[in-house]
Amino acid sequence: MADAQVIVSGVKKSFEDNLVLRDVSLSLQSGDVVAILGPSGSGKSTFLRCLDYLERADAGTLQLGNDVYDLHDASNKQILEVRRRTGFVFQNYNLFINKTALKNVMEPLVCAHRVPKEDAERIAKEALDKVGLSDRYDYYPSQLSGGQQQRVSIARAIAVKPEVIFFDEPTSALDPELIGEVLSVMKNLANQGITMIVVTHEMRFARNVATHVVFMEGGVIVEEGSPEQIFEHPQQSRTRQFLQQIADDAAIG
Amino acid sequence: MNALSTAKRVAGICLAAATVFGLTACGAAGSASGEQTTTVTIGVNNAYKPFDYLNENGDLDGYEIAVLKAVDDALPDYKFDYKPLDFQNIIVSLDSGKVDVASCVFTVNAERKQKYNLTEPYHLYLPAYIYVSNNSKASIKGIEDLAGKKVAATQGTDVANTLEEFNKKNPDKKIDLVYANWSGEQLATALESGAVDATYSDPVSFDLGQLKGKAKKVGEPIQESETSFLVGKKDTKLAKALDEGLKKISDDGTLSKLSQQYLGDDYTKSVA
Amino acid sequence: MGDYFTWNGFIHFIPKIAAQLPMTLLIVGGSLAIGVLLGLLLAFVRVFSIPVAKQIAIVFTSFVRGTPEIVQVFIVYYGLPLLVQSITGVDIDALSALYFVIVAFGINTAGYLAELFRGALESVPRGQYEAGEAAGLTRGAIFRRIVIPQAAKFALPGFGVNVVYLFQSTSMAAAVGVMDMMGKAANLGSATGRLLQSYAAAAVLFIIISIVLQWAFTLLDKRVTFGR
């Protein structure tokens, strides 16, 4: 299962009259870490959400392994299938407020994957250990810091052993001092060969951890390539502009 | 989540219990037996002493109840089922078909004769008298003597209507009718202090009320009201059966006896 | 006070009225069951904007909240048999008045609970739904396991108010002849001529019930706090 490829093809999406995604395609090998960069409004979050049917695309397909799913026209069964084969980490963590950390991680296992409770508990504990929260099993989200909540959220995603994990700006809502712990967990995941698509503003992560960088603007992929290619030798002027902007901001800060 | 499922469970049990209770109550009510007895539902007042009321133990008691029970005994083909109701619900229940008969000291008048079947013989003849304070010096013997005097009255009663009629016919000798929601206490006080000169009542209500010992009746009865049970206009068969039953207990003296027992005197014959 | 009120009589009345507590509980329990189920249904219809059903729900809720409850009791008590008779020809007048009372109170409670539940459901952050969806949970599972328990926290205070109110409004049941606690109090009062005494006794019982309810809801509230 973890050897499967992920191929996204021709995703289009409009909100009312606003064409947000023009035609976006992406291809990953197992173990790839794709960082998607771009200014706000570029459609990168929308793109990611379309892959998990959190937004309904107007057109496009998603291929997981040998199975192709229509991103516009899919049955409930297919939607559930895609969601059970993938993981999603939200900007706002979205942990289940009424459940402890352990129960949060167990929930998809028990409820969506029909794993027996004892096994689910064991797996969940392992996942929480992996993200460094072995001493927080029985804490409620309200009792955890933002960084801790996001790590639980990552544990929840990896526990079901998904073929790919989608990260939607995972550190954007965190206080600066908490960003590091989350990025470090994500780096570990990358090193373990987990396939990830990460929408992010964290340039250093994109540069050092990603295997593939994509720059989006105005609903299209402007340029993509290895981190070295994008950061050292950007071909498109828009890419250069964007990177320059980021560098300027960093200089001020 | 535990709280919700507990609450749901409790609610479920309550609903089940209510259903069981309702069904058994329904079953009990609908158990007209294998013989040809017809069940008749009678709506009765639940708080009108001494005619129809629920006593302390929650049992129906009173003169009209006793009369109905006697009629029930006299009619082997019928079985009476009693529904104690608030006063305002009795007529509505009869009109909407929730009950077959209504019992609430209903006086006989033209309007009711048109709308319903009234049972006969009438089981109650209540004379209305004028009552004055025990220490009153006025010599009042009849309606004419009330001219110019203050009389405590209740809106809508037959006697009040009679006095209004008198006033219409005698505009120069008007009776001053003081309408209010008079309670027994208030009447007694008003009579004693002279705030009003007289009021009216019947001997039965008088005996039970606050006026007893503080007021006295004077003169002859100013009018007499007959009382009947109300039956739906279309229910002629039932009305006839009730009439038969009433005639039976009237003829064999049961009616008079009940009147003596519950009302203190025989009010089953006209004295007008 | 004299004739109106004696302490002895007052104490004496309390167990007599309390004897009707099961009946009162039955009314409250049955009404609550109907109210919660129907209220949830109406709330869902509103939250999910189901066409036609949503309009019906809005009209229904406005009517129930805008008319006096005693009027609704009478409409159900007198009107329902007529309605049922005209549609199915079955005469349900013989049914115990208790049935009608529970239906009337249930409908009324549903109207208030619907608004309460709707507000509570809408207070649950959208992200909770999305996290459940992304994890591959079915709609039903998301509602049962995640949304409703959280909505319960928002709904609980208002719900408690409605329960207490239900207890008070059982006094209307006596108007159609159901002998619950208030009905018994009225009966005793008029049968013995001691209205103040019997209603005071009933009041004491209701105060006790309120205290018990308050304690119960405080406990419930703790259960849905989830560490906050």
UniProtKB/TrEMBL annotation, chain A:
InterPro entries, per the entry: AAA+_ATPase, ABC_ATPase_HisP-typ, ABC_transporter-like_ATP-bd, ABC_transporter-like_CS, MetN_ABC_transporter-like, P-loop_NTPase
Membrane-related topology note: Peripheral membrane protein
Molecular function terms from GO: ABC-type amino acid transporter activity; ATP binding; ATP hydrolysis activity
Segments forming domain ABC transporter: 6-243
Intracellular or extracellular location(s): Cell membrane
Keywords: ATP-binding, Cell membrane, Membrane, Nucleotide-binding, Transport
Pfam families recorded: ABC_tran
Annotated Gene Ontology cellular component terms: plasma membrane
PANTHER family, per database record: AMINO ACID IMPORT ATP-BINDING PROTEIN, L-CYSTINE IMPORT ATP-BINDING PROTEIN TCYN
Protein name, per record: Amino acid ABC transporter ATP-binding protein
UniProt source species: Bifidobacterium cebidarum
Species lineage: Bacteria, Bacillati, Actinomycetota, Actinomycetes, Bifidobacteriales
TrEMBL record, chain B:
Keywords recorded for this protein, A-Z: Signal
Pfam families in UniProt: SBP_bac_3 (PF00497)
Chain ranges of the Solute-binding protein family 3/N-terminal domain: 39-266
Signal peptide segment: 1-25
Taxonomic superkingdom: Bacteria
SUPFAM superfamilies the UniProt entry points to: Periplasmic binding protein-like II
Protein name: L-cystine-binding protein TcyJ
Organism name: Bifidobacterium cebidarum
TrEMBL record, chain C:
Keyword Aminoacyl-tRNA synthetase appears in the UniProt entry: no
UniProt-annotated location(s): Cell membrane
One GO cellular component, as annotated: ATP-binding cassette (ABC) transporter complex
Keyword tags: Cell membrane, Membrane, Transmembrane, Transmembrane helix, Transport
Residue ranges annotated for the ABC transmembrane type-1 domain, each copy included: 21-217
Annotated transmembrane regions: 20-44, 56-77, 97-117, 154-179, 199-220
BP term (GO), one: amino acid transport
Signal peptide: none
Transmembrane helix keyword on record: yes
Record-linked SUPFAM superfamilies: MetI-like
GO terms assigned for molecular function: transmembrane transporter activity
Membrane-protein topology: Multi-pass membrane protein
A Pfam family annotated for this UniProt entry: BPD_transp_1
Family of the protein in this entry: Belongs to the binding-protein-dependent transport system permease family.
Record PANTHER family: L-CYSTINE TRANSPORT SYSTEM PERMEASE PROTEIN TCYL, MEMBRANE COMPONENT OF AMINO ACID ABC TRANSPORTER
NCBIfam families: HEQRo_perm_3TM
UniProt protein name: Cysteine ABC transporter permease
Native organism taxonomy: Bacteria, Bacillati, Actinomycetota, Actinomycetes, Bifidobacteriales
